[in-house]
Amino acid sequence: MKKKRLSMMLKLIEMYEIGTQEEMLEKLKENGFESTQATVSRDIKELRLIKQMNDNGVYRYVQGKSEADEYLSKFNAIFSHSVISSDFAGNTTVIKCYPGMAQAACASFDNMEWEGLVGTIAGDDTIFALCRTDELAKELKESIDKLVK
User: Fold this and answer.
1) Same domain, 76 and 50
2) CB within 8 Å of 125: residues ≥ 6 apart
3) What is the pLDDT of residues 14-71, one digit of tens each?
């Protein structure tokens, strides 16, 4: 559901001049997505949307391109090429890496700023990622599996 909402938000900012979170909430609702202001705020941050003035002097959300995006892409590459598999138990996700790669993968992973992640610990070939809930640990495992395949 989150991926669909994020995708819809990107479509909406292309179609409409959305300048506030309230406007975004309204457009999401019109398109069948019930959400809260707090969720939209987090989504805007995750999508790295920025406000930019249009030709009429009105600010609207646009997708920002920055040096941070380039770094995030590099972090994703390091992480996805270091990880072998993942699993979860309770609210902990365990990430198995190639020998000697867990530290680099963990540093990359930490820079991805996963929602619901409390913290990580890395050894030689294993990362433990502590999540806020069991469900978030399961979602994290599924996201990691998609990233490394």
Assistant:
1) no
2) 96, 97, 98, 99, 100, 101, 102
3) 999 999 999 999 999 999 999 999 999 999 988 889 888 887 888 899 987 666 566 6
Output the pLDDT for position 67: 60
Q: How many CB atoms lie within 10 A of CB 84?
A: 12
**Number of domain units in the chain:** 2
- Same domain assignment for residues 45 and 15: yes
Closest C-alpha to 129, from 72, 144, 26, 65:
144
**In terms of residue numbers, what domain contains 25?**
2-63
